[in-house]
Amino acid sequence: MLRPSERGPGLLLGDGVELPERIEIGGNVIVHDGTVLGDGVRLGDGCVIGKAPLLGPQSRASREPPGPAILAEGVSVGAGSVILAGARLGAGCVVADQAHVRERAEIGAGTVVGRGVSVDNDVRVGERARLQTDAYITAWSVVEDDVFVAPGVTLTNDPTIGRRLAGEELRGAVLRRACRIGAGAVLLPGVDVGEEGVVAAGAVVTRDVPPRTLVMGVPARAVRYVRDEELLR
Hints:
- With 233 residues, the protein is mostly beta strands.
- It has two domains: 1-52 and 69-109, 3 Solenoid (UDP N-Acetylglucosamine Acyltransferase, domain 1), CATH 2.160.10.10; 129-160 and 170-226, 3 Solenoid (UDP N-Acetylglucosamine Acyltransferase, domain 1).
- It contains no helices and 30 strands.
- It is globular, with a radius of gyration of 19 Å.
- The chain starts with a strand and ends in an 8-residue tail after the last strand.
- The model has no long low-confidence stretch (mean pLDDT 96).
């Protein structure tokens, strides 16, 4: 049950929520039952933390309670963002304005989730990743450490486009360490982009990208090897 709190203007707190001494809270923030907040967390105006998932009657998603949302020390959540129950945000993670992080998603320390980014359920994001404005990280995707995802990138997970048979599983993309995905690129279900691989802007990736390979085009094709001086330092 949500109750008003004097710790912030218009703040509503659920049962079992304990606010650390060092916390910044904007106006009209809602923190739902059981949410765990670390020291130095910053919650922007109108953000919602720990909200239960809202599933449609035809959804095949798990109905098991996802557990509480957990925000580690130093996490910042922007205005209007929604962090669902069961999400876990690592230390120093930044979730910008109007972003959406779903149940059971895990986001590593120091990662930035940009404005309007959607991180779907059961996604795993490593440390120091950069997910830029309006990117969509579909369910069951894996994003490893130091990955860069440019604005407007779309990851997909359903090869049937909504016509899955019973028991057929979704397959998100796997983005290996320090790979880079250019603006507006689309990755088909189950695609694996290798370590230090590069996907050019606007590419449609239909098959795996080998490590240290630049691909571009529709469908994407290998263009060249990623040079030593282009690797993450």
